[in-house]
Amino acid sequence: MMEKEKVLALQPSSQGVGFAVLAGAESILDWGVKRTRSGNKNANALKVVQGMIQHYRPAVIVLENHSSVGSRRQPRVQRLMDGISRLAAKYRIATCRFSRAQVRKAFAFAGARTKQQIASVVAERFPELAPQLPPPRKIWKSEDHRQSTFDAVSFALTFYEAKRTQQRAA
Fold this sequence. Notes:
Helix 1 runs parallel beside helix 2 and helix 4 (115-125) packs across helix 5. The protein has one domain: Ribonuclease H-like superfamily/Ribonuclease H (Nucleotidyltransferase, domain 5, 2-Layer Sandwich), CATH 3.30.420. Helix content is 43%, strand content 18%. It is globular and about 40 Å long. It has helices at 41-56, 75-90, 100-106, 115-125, 147-169, and strands at residues 7-12, 16-22, 28-35, 60-64, 94-98. By secondary structure, the protein is of the alpha/beta class. Strands 3-2-1-4-5 form a five-stranded mixed β-sheet, with helices on both faces.
């Protein structure tokens, strides 16, 4: 059963890579944002991800499906996500991708639809993350870099929900 195997969820952003490592839907092991230096951000980010793969040894890497309808990921970040998938394949690690719509569906039980609402549900589920919860975003401000951590956790939880649904159907 995949439930206890480690999942590394990644959410690249303009400032770095948000990540979360979970060993089941109720057990978060590590989280944060690994900032990438200027220069070739994708190459730097891939080195960071490779280090995380070697350190955490995940069974699965979970990413956003940037090719889904409604995705607004920048081309550079799309290339980075594809590079992460190739890196995972090199290490023989399964990759799962979920759309934002799938994340919203996984959090529908709590009535959470926006990224902020979903992040709040994540902070309730994992109180250790609550101090990192970004304030509500003002439309004239850039997204807080900490949001990528909450996005990563939301993708990991969507993975576990999809696995649970799949097991119920079997």
